[in-house]
């Protein structure tokens, strides 16, 4: 979103205030041009013979987004059999989908096998059971390299206390299971979390994974997961994808020479692909000055947008209704009956009740984490593509809230009471 002649516009010159007018508020808007730019940036950064970027669709799982990724040649990273099913519905070839679950049942993995997708296993217990049930289905093994990505234990998933992956110290057990069951290991995988700031840390994890890869003769791919960070505010460090790409490609190509075959290099970015493409628009309901604070209360809350409250995430905000004006400070809060603070002491042009605020970086883990808490409707979603706006999800209504509820009739007044 940029300022153009004193008003904000999205790509293709689309006016976000018109979208809010047309589709209602609050509203999620995704710009396909930004997703394409990010996909191209990451593809171009890798210089290897065989590359596959599997979009981690839990970040934003609208089927139109999935189809956009398919049209660009991406694969799909999925964490539930429902996401697998979404991917199939979006037209992905099953072999372009990888199922990377954590703590799911063998039954759910068996369903994914039915779909014919790639299977990634992250614990030795399921590996052993899987090997006995499906000795002919090739698998990928998720390794925990015990590295800390950033300082946030909620988003870092490759450290020693994390529930994800098989510790690289357990490789003797993995080999014993593979040997006993006759499993074919076609891939090795790691995913360290969302805060890779330093290519050095990533490369040291990669080194551990390549050491393990060397022990498996039948590999087709090595999957380095994700952890690519984007900037949420001025001064944030983002992953230098060009530098990282050059270094990992060089290292990977050397590995392939040594291994004797061109393996496929895989990544599974979520946030990097869609975060910046998303905008969340909400209306200011109330400006409320208390003894200590000036609150701006908006028509949304942690039900629609939980990252600030759940991860302490910073999302930049703009007063879209007033591109020009005096700058003031506000604590922006939601309408949910919980403390749902979007941001403290945010500087924006002076807000008036009725103004539309934009939260930036609303593409990844925003709509996909939305709920109906407080019996609120989840918002509509719109995709902006080549100068046109498309509704890609309707706003919910009362019917949606009642769907699947069964009024069992236990407490109806009886006729004898009348
Ligand atoms: C969530 C997830 C990703 C995507 O992580 P981002 O930080 O959004 O890029 C990749 N791989 C797996 C296995 C995941 O669970």
Automatic annotation (TrEMBL):
Pathway in which this enzyme or protein is active: Amino-acid biosynthesis; L-lysine biosynthesis via DAP pathway; L-lysine from DL-2,6-diaminopimelate: step 1/1
Matching entries from InterPro entries are given as: Ala_racemase/Decarboxylase_C (IPR009006), DAP_deCOOHase_LysA (IPR002986), De-COase2_C (IPR022643), De-COase2_N (IPR022644), Orn/DAP/Arg_de-COase (IPR000183), PLP-binding_barrel (IPR029066)
| Catalysis performed (reactions) | meso-2,6-diaminopimelate + H(+) = L-lysine + CO2
* GO BP, sorted A to Z: lysine biosynthetic process via diaminopimelate
- The record's top EC class is lyase
Family to which the UniProt record says this protein belongs: Belongs to the Orn/Lys/Arg decarboxylase class-II family. LysA subfamily.
Q: What is this protein called?
A: Diaminopimelate decarboxylase
What does UniProt list as this organism's lineage?
Bacteria, Pseudomonadati, Bacteroidota, Saprospiria, Saprospirales
């Amino acid at each position: 979103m940029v300022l153009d002649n004193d008003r904000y516009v999205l790509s293709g010159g689309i006016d976000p205030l018109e979208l809010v007018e047309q589709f209602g508020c609050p509203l999620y808007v995704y710009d396909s041009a930004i997703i394409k730019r990010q996909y191209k940036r990451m593809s171009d950064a890798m210089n290897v013979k065989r590359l596959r970027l599997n979009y981690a669709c839990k970040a934003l799982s609208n089927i139109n987004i999935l189809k956009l990724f398919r049209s660009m040649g991406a694969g799909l990273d999925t964490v539930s059999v429902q996401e697998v099913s979404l991917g199939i519905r979006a037209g992905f070839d099953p072999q372009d989908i990888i199922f990377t679950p954590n703590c799911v049942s063998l039954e759910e993995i068996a369903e994914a096998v039915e779909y014919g997708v790639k299977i990634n296993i992250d614990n030795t217990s399921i590996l052993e059971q899987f090997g006995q049930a499906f000795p002919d289905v090739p698998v990928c093994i998720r390794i925990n390299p015990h590295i800390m990505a950033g300082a946030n234990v909620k988003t870092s998933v490759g450290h020693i206390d994390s529930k994800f992956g098989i510790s690289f110290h357990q490789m003797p057990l993995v080999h014993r299971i593979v040997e006993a069951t006759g499993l074919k290991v076609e891939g090795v995988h790691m995913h360290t979390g969302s805060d890779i700031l330093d290519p050095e840390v990533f490369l040291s994890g990669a080194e551990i994974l390549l050491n393990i890869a060397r022990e498996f003769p039948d590999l087709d791919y090595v999957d380095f997961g994700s952890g690519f960070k984007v900037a949420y505010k001025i001064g944030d460090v983002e992953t230098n994808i060009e530098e990282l790409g050059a270094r990992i490609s060089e290292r990977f190509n050397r590995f392939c020479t040594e291994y004797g075959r061109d393996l496929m290099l895989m990544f599974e970015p979520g946030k990097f692909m869609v975060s910046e493409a998303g905008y969340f628009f909400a209306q200011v309901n109330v400006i409320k000055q208390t003894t200590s604070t000036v609150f701006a209360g908006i028509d949304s809350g942690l039900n629609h947008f939980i990252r600030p409250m759940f991860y302490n995430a910073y999302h930049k905000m703009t007063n879209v209704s007033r591109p020009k004006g005096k700058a003031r400070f506000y604590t922006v809060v939601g309408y949910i009956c919980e403390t749902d603070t979007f941001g403290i002491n945010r500087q924006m042009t002076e807000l008036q009740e009725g103004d539309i605020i934009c939260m930036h970086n609303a593409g990844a883990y925003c709509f996909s984490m939305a709920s109906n808490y407080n019996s609120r409707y989840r918002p509509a979603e719109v995709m902006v593509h080549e100068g046109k706006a498309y509704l890609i999800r309707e706003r919910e209504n009362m019917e949606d809230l009642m769907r699947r509820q069964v009024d069992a009739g236990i407490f109806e007044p009886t006729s004898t009471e009348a």
